[in-house]
Target: 4-diphosphocytidyl-2-C-methyl-D-erythritol kinase
Amino acid sequence: MTAEIARATRVVVRVPAKVNLELRVGPLRDDGFHDLATTFHAVDIFDEVTVTPDAEFSVSVTGVGEDKVPTDEANLAYRAAALLAERFDVEERCAISIVKAIPVAGGMAGGSADAAATLVACDTLWGLGLRRHELEEIAAELGSDVPFALTGGTALGTGRGEQIVPVLATGTFEWLFALTHEGLSTPSVYAECDRLREGEDVPEPQPSDGLLASLRSGDVHGVALAMHNDLESAALSLMPSLRPLMEMGLEMGALCALVSGSGPTVAFLLKDRQDAVALRRVLEAGGLADDFVHASSTPHGAQVLVVD
Ligand code: C5P
Model:
């Protein structure tokens, strides 16, 4: 007699948003990407992805920005499930349902996070038992930010951002994110960055020792001083309204104001939650952004919450 292995009928995975504390962009490569040296940092704004067995792949989306998210093969979560099934000869299919809190097209890797969560959820649903490096390889095929979303916490990304090494970071930082309803497309921000740097000799990107040392000691002022984004001037060039928002935040007590990834979300780093709440009030009254979200650093990446 053989024992029946109970198969999961529902898996729920939670996955965080990211901000790039540092984003150094090298020259344009022949494959259309840029070499990066970037420090990813996860914050506790979470999307939740649920997978259940179904006859076909499908995606449904509720929550923040739901009307802006595709529900067909254009959705990275759909592609994640399909690629995993193809690579490991899985004949089963699943319905993917996403509850969004991460801003869409906001430079916080929301789509990449959903893809990472789907890989972890399907791995569990289908009982594949994949190793970390196997999931990371597939994640890298899906997009440059997807491997980080698996890992979470704080990590250095090199290559096109997909080669991830965890960074020793202590302390929990307080953030206020200012959101703009109109998104920026990542390729157009990189293209604008190339245009602005035309004729310049762009060096190979290097992470700064100052940031890594400040993260090790949990020194929020050192982190604020070292934060940097090479895509910021491109995002500001495409969306000049971000500049007065950032200036006002700095005048009103933010330790640092930085465009998150390719934008247009602006990340303000604050001394504590009290300062973040006070800054939100001032910026809300100023009407310079469409919405605001508080967040703290999180050590988590894509995490299984429920298996039924
Ligand atoms: O990897 P992902 O699909 O998220 O990248 C989206 C686009 O962003 C790429 O097609 C490319 O235009 C740009 N990109 C880049 N260099 C990187 C990452 C992304 O130029 N390292």
Notes: The chain has two domains: 11-162+300-307, 174-296.
